Amino acid sequence: MVSLERAYGRLLEAFAVAACALILGMTLMICADVFLRNVRVVPGWAGIEWANEVSEAMLFLVTLLTAPWLLRRGQHIRVDIVLRAVPPRVGWLFEWAVDLLGLGCCAIIAWYSARAAFASYAAGSLSIKTLVTPEWWLLTMLPLAFTALTVEMLFRMRRLWFAERAPRDDAVSTG
Which residues share a beta bridge with 134? Predict the structure, then answer.
């Protein structure tokens, strides 16, 4: 199980690296767009028409690719003031309650987003903006990301089970 968790961690790190590459690509694209709008290097070409649309999609993908990695690292936003105010064992139980809630939410969103992506594919729905693309291309990332979050919640719960009977020490706001 430990080697499976390590391999899964490497997969999530690859997702984070892909997100970094998307941010780099988006940065270069936006800079080129602004440059081409302000400096007429190519006659008749005033910017990259599809840059805003593609950058929106890239931001969406970056969010979905990094969410499971951030959860694994304990870097999601959390309010831990109650966890630090109650006895350690009660804080540990609160961690379990929140993890179970998170697991359920992630699994439900993975299921319904998979249904939405499949329905979009079956209907042949298109996103018509500057570019015309199949809607399911982006929708497919939702069930993949939330399935990854669901799996990470299971690993997170496993780590909690074997940890000290106290709240986690990752991402705490108090010293």
Answer: 126
Q: What is the pLDDT of residues 134-175, one digit of tens each?
A: 999 999 999 999 999 999 999 999 999 999 999 888 755 444
- What are the beta bridge partners of residue 127? 133
Sign of CA dihedral 14, 16, 17, 19: positive
DSSP per-residue letters across 132-147? EEETHHHHTHHHHHHH
Taking a C-beta distance cutoff of 8 angstroms, is the pair 116, 144 a contact?
no
pTM over 0.85: yes
d(CA 33, CA 155): 42
3-state DSSP assignment of residue 168: coil
Whether residue 84 contacts residue 174, with contact meaning beta carbons closer than 8 Å, is answered with yes
Radius of gyration of the chain (CA): 21
pLDDT tens per residue across span 40-63: 887 878 889 999 999 999 999 999
CA distances from 69 to 14, 81, 100, 152, 167 (A): 9, 24, 19, 9, 20
Q: Assess contact for 49 and 64: CB atoms under 8 A.
A: no
